[in-house]
Amino acid sequence: MATSVRAAADGSQPSAPPGPRPPQRRKAGSPWRSRLYRLDMKATPYAYIAPFFLTFAAFGLFPLIYTGWLSLHRVELGGSAEWRGLENYTGLWDSSFFWNALANTFTIGVISTVPQLMMALGLAHLLNYKLRGRGFYRVAILAPYATSIAAATLVFAQLFNTDYGMINGLLGVFGVDPVNWDTDKWPAQIAISVIVTWRWTGYNALIYLAAMQAVPNDLYEAAALDGASRWRQFISVTIPSIRPTILFTIVVSTIGATQLFGEPMLFGGSLGIGGGSSNQYQTLSLLMYENGWVTGSLGQASAIAWVMLLLLLFIGAVQALFARWNRKKLGA
Amino acid sequence: MTHALTKAPAKRQQPRHQQPPTRHRKKANRAGRQHHAGPVTYIVLAIAAFLSLFPLYWNVVAASHTGERVVQAPSPLLPGDQLFTNLEIAWNQVNMGTALINTTVVAGTVAASTVLFATLAGFAFAKLRFRGRNALLAVVVATMTIPPQLSVIPLYQIITELGWVDQLQSVMLPMLVAAFGVFFMRQYLLEALPVELVEAARMDGANSLRVIWHVVFPVARPAMAVLGMLIFVQAWNDFFWPFIALTPDGQPTLQVALAGLGSGNHTVNQAIVLTGALIATVPLLLVFALLGKHVVGGITQGAVKS
């Protein structure tokens, strides 16, 4: 990293430019001046972006490829690798744990993302009115975003405790029997989704709000002249106008949901890595961690990581297609 | 819920902490965002604010009772008198003091380096012409979608080889500059920095370093501050990789220490666990309380353009 620091600070030594890399000396004599100046102009852009690309190459790209290589081998921590071809992948295909984790990741992802984004949309709409104390509301709904996964989950684990938790206490007031928020599959998945939703709703609401404020007022005026109700305006003016932002939040939330790890792990306490007593909320990330760091089979864990990447690429492709189809439908 | 706003019944209970809702909306004022909020809006927002803040409040409550009281139904709703006892135990016996220092070092370093490098790269992508610019920018954006799960296994092998397990640089190095920061600064400088300004400085014979120092940094300063804050929060709360690279009993960050507390056996004192959570949360909440408006602005700036 030291090299990139110097390169960036000096502004004239590209350390690993993806483009041409001219030789250089930096002694400013006047005959050299114009050449130096040219060099400066040509090389500095690469020097400026070099720190990012070096960091990415070292800590993103190389590990990604190496993980792919590992996924084709049988490797244990500290041991040597042994070629296995696609066996790690076929092993996943035959593993009920894998399908369980995949299904859990999907269901928790849906339960946590869909209501979250819809509530965020509603909140943004409300925050877009002329309000007294708007600063308070904005900061208040953003406070969960400042809370870490670990802190939030530990608090919610207490609130959702089956025996003494406040949520069961509250339900009891309404005559509802205590819910097994940890051991029953769906309640547990809902509880975990509540944590995710709590942390991210306000953040997304503020993103929507900013997008809504950029919608030109004429559109609303025209709609109002046409006799459109407020609800109608929301549906046919607001939503279409902020569609790109909605798509952005969907993409970000999907990526987040695919890697869900900390919430289920800490929600489960000492059983967290397994995703509960009967893996009822074990996600792909947890399964990967269990394979790599508990069972110690890094090849298998690498295969899960790559499945996650392929999954994200697939989802990304679907979303891109959907976005294009959407644009076409709008007759752009 | 939204369409009900126009015909909200006048007699609704007003939410606490709120001024009375504004009186009648003027008919002439038709455009969506100029409408005054009705009582239902205030009620819904008050509920949202309450739900957002209550878990944090209850964290304080739980941290101020004994461990036995926390796990007793009905749950306590008002603060008790054990806060300082709990703080002392959490601080001295569970490594939270070390964790707080470590987290500050990590988040501070990562925020500073990200701001510096992201501003340079963002400037290059926004205002400089060079071959491959668009393709490289696309690469930057694409890297944002790669989850950390794809890199942790090799990275863990490497830090094991280097003897870097439980050393803070293992956590800091991969986070030195994030794609999000590059993109964020690029979006900002695209509009905020007139090309003429850069060219004029060039005409005056300024070299690249001087252009950065005297032109780019001054213009970028507001965005740099916001980005620094966002990255600080992100690094402060980062969990997955620190959880793998550090250990709760060695040199943990706050999140790792918390994970150690939380995944301990069930006999663990929950009041201490939640005191730990409080220690991890309060510094950031203070930052938010002081700079809330800027954080709000920063988050919205970063997303809308993209």
From TrEMBL, chain A:
<keyword id="KW-0813">Transport</keyword>
<dbReference type="InterPro" id="IPR000515">
    <property type="entry name" value="MetI-like"/>
</dbReference>
<feature type="transmembrane region" description="Helical">
    <location>
        <begin position="136"/>
        <end position="160"/>
    </location>
</feature>
<dbReference type="Pfam" id="PF00528">
    <property type="entry name" value="BPD_transp_1"/>
</dbReference>
<feature type="transmembrane region" description="Helical">
    <location>
        <begin position="303"/>
        <end position="323"/>
    </location>
</feature>
<protein>
    <submittedName>
        <fullName>Sugar ABC transporter permease</fullName>
    </submittedName>
</protein>
<dbReference type="InterPro" id="IPR035906">
    <property type="entry name" value="MetI-like_sf"/>
</dbReference>
<keyword id="KW-0472">Membrane</keyword>
<keyword id="KW-1133">Transmembrane helix</keyword>
<feature type="transmembrane region" description="Helical">
    <location>
        <begin position="97"/>
        <end position="124"/>
    </location>
</feature>
<comment type="similarity">
    <text>Belongs to the binding-protein-dependent transport system permease family.</text>
</comment>
<keyword id="KW-0812">Transmembrane</keyword>
<feature type="domain" description="ABC transmembrane type-1">
    <location>
        <begin position="102"/>
        <end position="319"/>
    </location>
</feature>
<keyword id="KW-1003">Cell membrane</keyword>
<feature type="region of interest" description="Disordered">
    <location>
        <begin position="1"/>
        <end position="31"/>
    </location>
</feature>
<dbReference type="InterPro" id="IPR051393">
    <property type="entry name" value="ABC_transporter_permease"/>
</dbReference>
<feature type="transmembrane region" description="Helical">
    <location>
        <begin position="45"/>
        <end position="66"/>
    </location>
</feature>
TrEMBL record, chain B:
<keyword id="KW-0813">Transport</keyword>
<comment type="similarity">
    <text>Belongs to the binding-protein-dependent transport system permease family.</text>
</comment>
<dbReference type="Pfam" id="PF00528">
    <property type="entry name" value="BPD_transp_1"/>
</dbReference>
<keyword id="KW-0812">Transmembrane</keyword>
<protein>
    <submittedName>
        <fullName>Carbohydrate ABC transporter permease</fullName>
    </submittedName>
</protein>
<feature type="transmembrane region" description="Helical">
    <location>
        <begin position="40"/>
        <end position="58"/>
    </location>
</feature>
<feature type="domain" description="ABC transmembrane type-1">
    <location>
        <begin position="100"/>
        <end position="291"/>
    </location>
</feature>
<dbReference type="InterPro" id="IPR000515">
    <property type="entry name" value="MetI-like"/>
</dbReference>
<feature type="transmembrane region" description="Helical">
    <location>
        <begin position="271"/>
        <end position="291"/>
    </location>
</feature>
<feature type="transmembrane region" description="Helical">
    <location>
        <begin position="99"/>
        <end position="123"/>
    </location>
</feature>
<feature type="transmembrane region" description="Helical">
    <location>
        <begin position="171"/>
        <end position="190"/>
    </location>
</feature>
<feature type="compositionally biased region" description="Basic residues">
    <location>
        <begin position="22"/>
        <end position="34"/>
    </location>
</feature>
<dbReference type="InterPro" id="IPR035906">
    <property type="entry name" value="MetI-like_sf"/>
</dbReference>
<feature type="transmembrane region" description="Helical">
    <location>
        <begin position="211"/>
        <end position="233"/>
    </location>
</feature>
<feature type="region of interest" description="Disordered">
    <location>
        <begin position="1"/>
        <end position="34"/>
    </location>
</feature>
<keyword id="KW-0472">Membrane</keyword>
<keyword id="KW-1133">Transmembrane helix</keyword>
<keyword id="KW-1003">Cell membrane</keyword>
<feature type="transmembrane region" description="Helical">
    <location>
        <begin position="135"/>
        <end position="159"/>
    </location>
</feature>
